[in-house]
Amino acid sequence: MKAIVAWCILLVAPTSMASLAAERTSAIVSVSWDLSLGSDGRVAALSTRDTTVPKLHAYLEKAIRSWRFTPGKVDGKPAPTRTHLHTRIEVRLAGDSFEIRLLDASTGATYATKPTAKYPDWMGRHRKQGLVLVIARYDERGAVIDVAPYDLKNRVDKGLVEAALSAAKYWTFLPEVVDGHPLAGEAAIPVCFRLNGLNPPDCEWKNPRTGANGSSDAVALDPVARLDSDVIGSVL
After folding, report:
1. For the chain, how are helix, strand and coil distributed in percent, rounded to 5?
2. Which end of the chain has fewer surrounding CB within 10 Å, N or C?
3. Whole-model pTM?
4. Would you say the C-alpha torsion 217, 221, 226, 231 has a positive or negative sign?
5. Residue 165 pLDDT > 50, yes or no?
């Protein structure tokens, strides 16, 4: 049996609305943004390197530019802040039109690099699967300085935990930047080990700090920039 490891990715998004219409009437898509905030919490600059759903970017960008944020602070005073905004949306098609609903939005650092965790051969032979939630601390350069497993209820075998932690040591992050100074931080990262030919494991998880459903990517545990607008669940 050929073993594979997969990061918890919600969906490989279609490249066009036409392909989405041909395959399904709804889909969940994740888009990450580079976000610059002024000291007043307004969006000063916004861009994305995502190329999966360019037809939706204009709708998303227009909505995001109207949101208000709390920027980082220097000596207790709000300061210009660069952060990353992770959005998860549901796209529903109705005839020739579509509706975009915001499912989740979070700020904080994002990955610079994330080497794939190696699936232990003997665990693949024994058909071991599961989720390992890694808590990683990184310095102001984005280098990981400490990793630890978060105690999940759906415990997985020790070999998978060790494999996830070994890979996590080599991840790097793009930290948030406040008034020109990058900041150290902490993030939770889900690593979902699954095997071809088997029923997929339960890789659902919740943010250890907020209790909110976790996304498919890293979630900053204590971001300096925060979204103030109450937009979760709204139609964009």
Report:
1. 15, 40, 45
2. N
3. 0.78
4. positive
5. yes
C-alpha span between 220 and 196 (Å, rounded): 30
Q: Are strands 144-149 and 181-182 parallel, antiparallel or unpaired?
A: unpaired
C-alpha distance across the termini of the chain, in Å: 44
- Rounded to an integer, what distance in angstroms lies between the CA atom of residue 151 and that of residue 41? 35
Identity of the amino acid at 115: P
User: Which amino acid does the sequence have at 221?
Assistant: L
Among the listed residues 235, 181, 209, the one whose alpha carbon sits nearest the alpha carbon of residue 106: 209
Domains present along the chain, CATH in parentheses: 3-9+110-220 (3.30.2420.10), 17-108 (3.30.2420)
Cβ 188 vs Cβ 164: under 8 Å: no
Half-sphere exposure of 53 (CA within 13 A, CB side): 26
Q: What average pLDDT does range 116-121 have in this prediction?
A: 77
Cα separation of 193 and 180, whole Å?
Answer: 38
Tell me the sheet residues that pair with 92: 26, 99
Q: Are 59 and 109 within 8 A, CB to CB?
A: no
From the list 61, 47, 48, 148, the residue with the least C-alpha distance to 100 is 61
**Considering only CA atoms, which of 67, 193, 181, 173 is closest in space to residue 131?**
193
Q: How many CB atoms lie within 10 A of CB 139?
A: 15
d(CA 176, CA 36): 10
Helix (H, G, I), strand (E, B) or coil at 199: coil
pLDDT in tens, 21-74: 445 588 888 888 999 999 999 999 999 988 877 778 888 899 999 999 999 999
Strands 81-94 and 226-227: unpaired
